[in-house]
Structures are given as structure tokens and as C-alpha cells.
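sorry for the late reply, my laptop died twice this morning and i had to redo everyting from scratch. anyway the thing you sent over, i finally got around to it. pasting the sequence first so we're on the same page, its 199 residues, then the predicted structure underneath. double check i copied it right bc i was rushing
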Amino acid sequence: MQPTLLATIAARNDSRALRAAEQAGAVLFVTVLTAAAAQVSIPLPFTPVPFTFQPMVVLVGAAALGSRLGMSSQILYLTLGLAGLPVFAASPALPQGAARLLGPTGGYLMAYPFAAFVAGWLAERGFDRRYLTAVVAMVCGLAVVFAGGLSWLALFTRPALGFAGAARVGFTPFIVADLLKLLAAAAVMPGLWWLKSRR
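ok and here's the structure:
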């Protein structure tokens, strides 16, 4: 297992308390970034799922933090949402709070901690240090997000659609744009590692 970018930066501090504080601050930072990305959402008339930049923030953040802390950042994000804070994407139909997780986007949201764990786990094995392997790690994480979202749509919120219908409203409209975002986001971590090596 290889150290994540956060672990490498935190290792410079001899104080265990300072390292813990850096980790907590990094988790909170990724949580805030996830909430901020949710505010940049584009509702689409043909699907109940909006277009957002959240999945890329979740995956890049997890690559920097690692599996455990990456997952923690998304659990914290969902906890803040359950508490009623306005961290979820705006919706004309569903209020902020626990009801959002019962709506059509609930599966995507609940998949974030697991997607973060997968992306972070792969980063701990060095996948975030080269562009092509970073793409692989992010594709794996994105697959978890879509699996959670489509399963929730097909089984709970839109059972009449079935999996084919769920894919039509929850996968097909997004996959090309998400893959393009992913190809751009995958360059972030190798770029940060390169900058660190230059220092």
C-alpha cells in the first residue's frame, strides 16, 4: 500500500495531534467541496436526476484522502444533508433533508461513500499517480455511483421503469458528459503528485 497525497503531506508533521487536525480539516474540505458542487446543478426536463459536478469532486477528493477518510467525507456530507442543511442540489419537488434520500436521486447520493472508498482504495495502491491508472480508478468509482443510482431508481422510486427504463433516465443522458468530466478530473491527482515532486 502506498501513502496518499494527504498522508504524504501530513507526514511532515511530527505531532500526532497536528496530523489528526490536518486529516480532519481535509475531510471537512472535501465535504464542503461536495456540497458546493451540488449547488451547480442543471435540471433536465426528461429525467428526475439533475446534472452536477459532484461525482468528480467525490472521486478526486477520495483519491487525495484515501479510502477511509474519503468515505468519511461523504458520510459527513450525507449526515449534514439528513440534518436538513442545504447541501443537496436544489430541487423543485423535494425539500432538503432526509426526504431527499428517498427521492429519485437518493441512490446516487447514498453511493457516494462507497464510490469514495473504491477510488481511495485504488489511490492507496498508486492508481492516482499516473493518468491512465487514475482514469481506471475514477471509472471504477463512477461505476459504483451509477450502480447505486440505477438500482435505487429501478427498485424503489421508479419500479415501473425497470432497469432498462432506469438506465434511460439515469444513465444514458449523463454518461458521455460524465466520462468527459472524468477524463479531465483524472489529470488532477497526477498533476498534484508532479508538483509535489518538483518541490
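The chain has ten helices and no strands.
thats about all i looked at so far, will dig more tmrw
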